Records
---
Amino acid sequence: MDKPRVVLGVGGGIAAYKACEVLRGLTESGHDVRVVPTDAALNFVGAATFEALSGHPVHTGVFTEVPDVQHVRVGKDADLVMVVPATADLLARAAHGLADDLLTNTLLTARCPVAFFPAMHTEMWEHPATRDNVALLRARGLLVAEPDSGRLTGVDNGKGRLADPREIVDLARLLLAEPAALPRDLTGIRVAISAGGTREALDPVRYLGNRSSGKQGYALARVAAQRGADVTLIAAHTVALPQPAGVEVRHVSSARELGEAVHAASADADVVVMAAAVADFRPAERADHKIKKSDDQPDPTITLVRNPDILAELVKNRREGQIIVGFAAETGDEAGGVLEHARAKLKRKGCDLLVVNAVGDGKAFEVEDNGGWLLTAPALGGAERPIPLGSKSQLASAVWDAVSELTAH
Ligand code: CTP
């Protein structure tokens, strides 16, 4: 199969150096990348770097390779065009259809998905001119990702930081898989998502935990934010993951802490998604000091007590119109298959949507791809949709498609 062809446009901002990481991530995951910088971008990163990393020549203007009609061909041949970083100037030129260099020509000739990843100072991002340009581009169906908050050039801090390069590569993969996957249909919707695995302390150094990586919850947060939602992510121990751009993250540890944070966030949330692996039990006692082995004492026995079922509590206290999404990790056994267990769980938990992952044998935990079913409560039509095996962002998209349908009614 031909490699997907990605055009990586690079704007003239200090974050241009991070485009090299995006380029690396894309080529290493099997994409053919053509870099099209602006002249200004070459003040930050030299053409030789882009040529060496992409394996293609790099031009900025329309007067090179003229017989090949490059200014039309580069855009027409692309499967995806990404602009990293998108400066305020580039967003303005794109919004108004200017075509004064190879990149802006490419943006006008592209018939594939186009995504902008802005980076600029907060004042520029918040300026009405930029807001209007972003709104115009989004209204035309282009993706303008939310920038991150944090350290900017110099001593400044605030919104306008380029999204994490790993996030950008992940979104590129999602856009190539499902070009229509990122509408702004969740604009104005507040969502709370739990992710990761809780830890129940036995003593100051030991705990009972589980193998959840948190990647699925983070993917749900990332995709919801890019579709316009206002997202709070409650993260219990995850592997090291980039912070999704535009998402407020609260870190917790135990099931009870997670419960408190989820209930607080759900008070004004339209949608709550319980993607975290919550420990059903915790040690009845937590030792203040490290538990020591001793030849004089019998070996310790751990007594477990039940943790609250947060999903069940959410369903019990749900606000009018609030949508609650649960996850079920099932292996199937002699009493029934994965789907039979899942249907029973949907009924028992009383949530509106249940995402069902088949687990075991390397499926779902600690892996990049996920698949399963999406079950809708009988009262809401009882649909049972298979989710084909794909990236965790693709599964997240399927969940938000279903939520979006429910919120539209
Ligand atoms: N969950 C929760 N609180 C718990 C345990 C689970 O909110 N104490 C949530 C999970 O986040 C998930 C859903 O409930 O969305 C299903 O979790 P799972 O562990 O599969 O379900 P259980 O009810 O524990 O069922 P069982 O262990 O019997 O399979």
Note: The chain has a mean pLDDT of 92.
---
Amino acid sequence: MRFYTILADGQERVAVSEDGKNLYILEQVKDMSALIKSGSLPVIPAGQTPIDITEAKILAPIPRPMQDVICLGINYAAHADEAARFSAEAFGGERPYPIFFSKRVSLAPGPDDPIPAYEGLVDGLDYECELGVIIGKDAKNVKAEDAAAYIFGYTIINDVSARNLQTRHRQWYFGKSLDGFTPMGPCIVSADSFAFPPALPIWCRVNGEMRQNSVTDCLMTGIGTIIETLSEGMTLQAGTIIATGTPAGVGMGMDPPAFLKKGDIVECGIDGIGTLKNPVA
Ligand code: MG
């Protein structure tokens, strides 16, 4: 089952789809967070004329997350190598434990909305295609082998990053949290749609050129361990969004680095979920 937030008659509505083509508005559901917190999957509304997805304005599935998005840093081996080459001070060294950080998302761009370039402020605008995990029920002291039952579904997140701000401020928060830096979507696919952990091709293209190309089960710290580690000390509330890290192939990893500029088109895809296609503006 796939869940979308769409703009219908000027209002944000939650819609459900089984085929990714015909969307049915869930009239009784206030927003995606309310659906997640309800603790149950809805049924396709009977007797409703579906909306063709090509005629819908698709927003980010959770446009305004209730809390900062929790992110994994350096969670694919090949990305660890390229990041350390770019800046050993910022990204090198031993990492016996997973790296967690967060990013503020006041309003997540949808799957075709622009990513702002912030010319004059940002030097080193970069993309990071990531599998997003949406927690479905409050998780505290959850073991890795039980973690799957706490997941509502999966989405695609582009963890857009300003490399100059990320390194200059010695803390990744600001450089990851600029308005418009977290395109998300195009939908949330319910967790029961995939085996656990999901092993899905994940890729990113810039202006049609393949930059990132991996599989989502190559995480150094897997989804089960992420949830076990965090929930040992903090409650992961229903609706929590976790970005699980990005594969190799980001702009700072290229030789020479190739950052985004105005007019570029960034496509982030995970097979089985969909594609984000955001212009840099
Ligand atoms: Mg990232």
Note: The longest helix spans residues 77-86.
